[in-house]
Design goal:
about 120 residues, mainly alpha, 5 helices, binds protoporphyrin IX containing FE
């Protein structure tokens, strides 16, 4: 798979969702969803765009299996995390119900970032 394109396309989808929530917050003056808006835009659009561009600029990194691992760890972790956050902030689940899915999602994102770091050290010259 083309990891760079995957990250850029997914980042764009998160940006559309993040801006939609921002516009809703601005129009309604209900700012309950600020943390979800922030992380959809930052973990979603900003980080994924940076990763997508790095894999495009350094093709040797994109060819490594670490890049594929990074892509899926970041996708699953981010989707789980922002979904749990939206459910929490809209009162659909209690804070105690964040466990264990949210910590698992955070670990997935972190493992993805560690894959990215290892790949950068090995192939990012
Ligand atoms: C048209 C697009 C956007 C609109 C209408 C919008 C709207 C908002 C609103 C209403 C807030 C809440 C402010 C508050 O309660 O103090 C907010 C917070 C925030 N937005 Fe956006 N936003 C947009 C795009 C973005 C983008 C593209 C990013 C990042 C890439 C972003 C990052 C943030 C962050 C990090 C916060 C939290 C700031 C804080 O901690 O005080 N927003 N946005
Ligand atoms: C697994 C990854 C992450 C976790 C678990 C996490 C967790 C948190 C938590 C618990 C808060 C406090 C929320 C509150 O006070 O309501 C927060 C706020 C914030 N984080 Fe993250 N974060 C992560 C990744 C990131 C990344 C990658 C960025 C930037 C690129 C970022 C930017 C911010 C910003 C700007 C705020 C303040 C936004 C607000 O006012 O709600 N975070 N984060």
């Amino acid at each position: 798979m083309n990891v760079s394109r995957g990250f850029l396309v997914m980042g764009c989808l998160y940006l559309i969702a993040g801006i939609s929530i921002g516009m809703y917050m601005g129009a309604s003056t209900d700012h309950t969803l600020v943390p979800a808006h922030a992380h959809i835009n930052l973990l979603g659009f900003t980080l994924m765009s940076v990763f997508g561009l790095v894999y495009r600029v350094v093709p040797a990194m994109a060819e490594s299996g670490l890049a594929t691992a990074h892509f899926w760890l970041h996708q699953v972790g981010t989707l789980l995390l922002v979904t749990m956050l939206v459910l929490l902030l809209t009162g659909r689940i209690a804070e105690t119900a964040m466990f264990p899915v949210a910590p698992i999602a955070e670990v997935l994102v972190m493992l993805g970032v560690l894959s990215f770091a290892a790949n950068l050290l090995r192939n990012g010259r």
